[in-house]
Amino acid sequence: MLKITSKEFNVTDAIRSRIESRLEKLNRHDVDLINPHIIIITEGPMFKIESSIKLTNGQLFAQAKHQNLYTAINALGQKLEKQLNRVTHKSTKRAVANFVEEEPEYSEEYAA
């Protein structure tokens, strides 16, 4: 269940739906998002948005700042996608790096 927190203003349905649609893109990686928490903070004319999402094999944390809240949400989504891509492909990169192809053994019969 997505939890969105903001102290300075009310989170409208439009903001909630934008955040939900952005986080749905993370589901492409077939990873369970556990307790996603989004915090929206206003710092003068800027919006700061932070997210903390637990995974079965780690945690994602990202933050973004922008004058436009929707732009900050998109930037946050891009950062989360980048982190999630790293986490999901980390194990496959290690497996490929550790794979050593055996060289065929040559017998003396074939050596000329």
UniProtKB/TrEMBL annotation:
InterPro entries: HPF/YfiA_ribosome-assoc (IPR050574), RHF-like (IPR036567), RHF/RaiA (IPR003489). Transmembrane segments: none annotated. GO terms for biological process: negative regulation of translational elongation. Gene3D superfamilies: Ribosome hibernation promotion factor-like. Keywords: Stress response, Translation regulation. One of its GO terms (molecular function) is ribosomal small subunit binding. GO terms for cellular component: cytosolic small ribosomal subunit. It comes from the Bacteria. CDD domains: RaiA (cd00552). NCBIfam families: yfiA (TIGR00741). This is Cold-shock protein. It comes from Shewanella mangrovi.
